[in-house]
Each structure stands twice: as C-alpha cells, then as structure tokens.
Amino acid sequence: MNAVEAASRASVRPSTVSRWVASGRLPADRLPTGELQIDAAVLDEFLSRRTAAPRAAPVDAAIALAAAQERIRGLEALVEEQKGWLRESDLRLQLVLKA
Q1: pLDDT-flagged residues of the chain (< 70)
Q2: How many CB atoms lie within 10 A of CB 68?
Q3: What is the distance in angstroms between the CA of the first residue and the CA of the last residue of the chain?
C-alpha cells in the first residue's frame, strides 16, 4: 500500500507515515516513481507495537539516534559507491563514443 493508504489505515496524515519511514521506524520500499510501498502486515505490526509500547525513555532516543546516524553513514557510503560506478560508466561511454 502507498503512504496515503497506510495513513488512512493508521488514522494519521500521510506526512506522519512519511516521517515514520524517514526515521526508520516503519520499513518501506521506495518505488522508481518515488512513491512509498508499505507492506500491510508490516504496518499492522508497527501499529500494534506503537499503541502497546510505553513512552520511550531518553536512553531509547539516544539509541535510536545512534542507529539513524549509522544508517546515514551506510547510505552515504552507498552513494559514494554509486558515484564511482557512474564515473566509470561515463569513462567507458566516452571511450566507446571516440571509437
């Protein structure tokens, strides 16, 4: 389901669903169109934990922040890897065009 459908199911706004995904609390895939794709079972699990869980302690927030920072570092490494691949592909293309 997309973010609008998930928001309707969770009785929240689509922007809230997007924030959950961006923070890493709600797993989702991003389609080539940029639209979020959320598994209904995953959303239901998330919602059941969300309503059953007590308020997060500050320690939990620090752990979540550290996990988010680690995820960002991983994504930055992936971006750099893709940049290298694109540079290599561009060089190969230039060689083919010169031939």
Answers
A1: 52-59
A2: 14
A3: 48
